[in-house]
UniProtKB/TrEMBL annotation:
InterPro entries assigned: 4Fe4S_Fe-S-bd, Co_F420_Hydgase/DH_bsu_N, FRHB/FDHB/HCAR-like, FrhB_FdhB_C
Ranges where the 4Fe-4S ferredoxin-type domain occurs: 7-36
Protein known as: Coenzyme F420 hydrogenase/dehydrogenase, beta subunit C-terminal domain
Family matches, as PROSITE patterns: 4FE4S_FER_2
Signal peptide range in chain numbering: none
């Protein structure tokens, strides 16, 4: 394998997550992040830049095998951490609960903790701005439904509440941070936070200006086609969509009953539960970025604080939403502890095992599943992960599940592309129903044909 890598090497090897770190560092004019045929963000630019091997790129791409891994970064960032666990990495304290102050909890998809921490950092004068994801004002004109923005007021930060299962990238806000002095917090999924930490090791400007990192637990990155699939299945024109809400909150329904809502230009609102969408089973891997097959960080182990949903009972049935929180920064730990004492946060301390249980499916996919996938033959750049290749530990059924998930992920991109190009949505929808039914039968019912047929009939409605 080459010692030095180029953006092209990572993209062609299926390891580009689309974070935009490479574009943010590019000295070449004409570089940008843009959507490819499959609705995934990829770097574009002059061939000389795209093909050029680079020491800096090799060290800072989060999926480069030569980049420092999460264990190394966390040891540098949090050398005095009180606790460490194989699943969660280093940390000070872990909690489960929600925000009780104002309406943070109601506004968020979960317990409101992400927005609260970002807002508290602003209130305390510890930062001047928050880099986070917000909805695009004119998505049809901008060509995307969500993007990163730097918010400088509490009202602006609150506009970023709720989950966004959509490809976004960091290049524009990283360039802004470089150009505009100040103290910033960055919110992101695990690989994005890793990219930021790798940049901070390389560049003193980022090291000085990015003061805090807020991580989001992650299952995988979806492509932009997920929204178009919503539109197809709800029978509305995708080009008329103005707002996308992936998880509409209803306090009277369990938190894990996801409901997708689309708002159109004429004000019409359509919605459907994920369970009734052909590609709505998250675990099946529809539209998953191929790089996610080679990620071993579920909970953003290199972030100062990270947040997820508490997917265990009784919390998963609480329609108001509940966060599980892992704190690594002593300063943020002090902020959180003080707010708990003041009853602004309703949090209880939990151990690493509890955190792992709330994300059990994600850890199986990113640890046992990853170990199995690392034994598969592949071309291009070879991932180097903290998990050792292992084709023996997983049961036969688990291996079959990892295989079918991999094929559904790849197939969803290709079948959707074909259906889109020939303007035959039903081609994709029928394929997705069949794939979902097979996955359902294998994952939940030991491959029983009757259960597959039952699920297929349910999805036909």
């Amino acid at each position: 394998m080459k010692d030095l890598l180029s953006p092209k090497d990572i993209v062609r090897s299926g390891l580009c997550i689309g974070c935009g770190s490479c574009v943010a560092q590019a000295a070449s004019n004409g570089t940008a992040m843009d959507f490819d045929w499959y609705g995934q963000l990829k770097p574009k630019g002059p061939e000389e830049w795209y093909r050029s091997d680079s020491e800096s790129f090799t060290r800072t791409c989060p999926f480069s095998p030569a980049a420092k891994n999460e264990d190394h970064l966390a040891a540098e960032l949090y050398p005095t951490a009180r606790q460490a666990h194989l699943a969660t990495g280093r940390f000070e304290t872990a909690y489960v609960g929600h925000v009780s102050e104002e309406d943070f909890r109601l506004q968020g998809s979960s317990g409101g903790m992400v927005t609260w921490v970002a807002t508290e950092l602003l209130r305390r004068g510890l930062i001047d701005g928050v880099a986070h994801v917000v909805a695009s004002q004119n998505p049809q004109e901008e060509g995307r439904y969500f993007r990163y923005r730097i918010s400088r007021t509490e009202a602006e930060v609150r506009q970023g509440a709720k989950s966004r299962y959509y490809p976004i990238e960091l290049s524009e806000i990283l360039q802004m941070i470089r150009e505009v002095p100040g103290r910033y917090a960055v919110v992101g999924i695990p690989c994005f936070i890793k990219a930021v930490q790798l940049l901070r090791r390389e560049d003193p400007i980022f090291r000085e200006r990015i003061r805090f990192t807020l991580g989001l637990f992650c299952g995988h990155m979806k492509s932009a086609r997920f929204v178009e699939s919503f539109a197809w299945q709800m029978q509305v024109p995708a080009e008329q969509i103005e707002q996308v809400e992936y998880r509409h909150k209803d306090p009277n329904r369990p938190a894990n009953w996801y409901n997708a809502r689309l708002t159109l230009r004429d004000g019409q609102v359509v919605n459907r539960d994920w369970w009734h969408l052909a590609d709505g089973d998250w675990g099946a891997g529809f539209y998953m970025n191929s790089a996610c097959n080679f990620c071993d960080d579920v909970i953003a182990e290199t972030a100062d604080i990270s947040f997820g949903d508490a997917w265990v009972e009784p919390y998963s049935s609480d329609g108001m939403g509940t966060n599980v929180v892992v704190v690594r920064s002593p300063l943020i730990q002090e902020l959180v502890a003080n707010a708990v004492n003041e009853n602004r946060l309703m949090l209880e301390e939990v151990d690493a095992k509890f955190v792992e249980q709330t994300q059990a499916a994600g850890f199986r996919q990113r640890r046992e599943g990853l170990a199995y996938r690392l034994t598969w033959s592949r071309t291009g750049v070879q991932p180097r992960k903290r998990v050792a290749p292992d084709s023996k530990s997983a049961t036969r059924q688990r291996k079959l599940i990892y295989r079918i998930r991999y094929y559904i992920s790849a197939g969803s991109h290709n079948v959707f592309k074909l259906a889109r190009s020939i303007k035959k949505p039903q081609l994709y929808i029928r394929w997705a129903r069949m794939a979902a039914a097979v996955y359902h039968g294998l994952a939940y019912h030991q491959g029983k044909l009757g259960e597959m047929l039952k699920r297929f009939a349910e999805l036909r409605g």
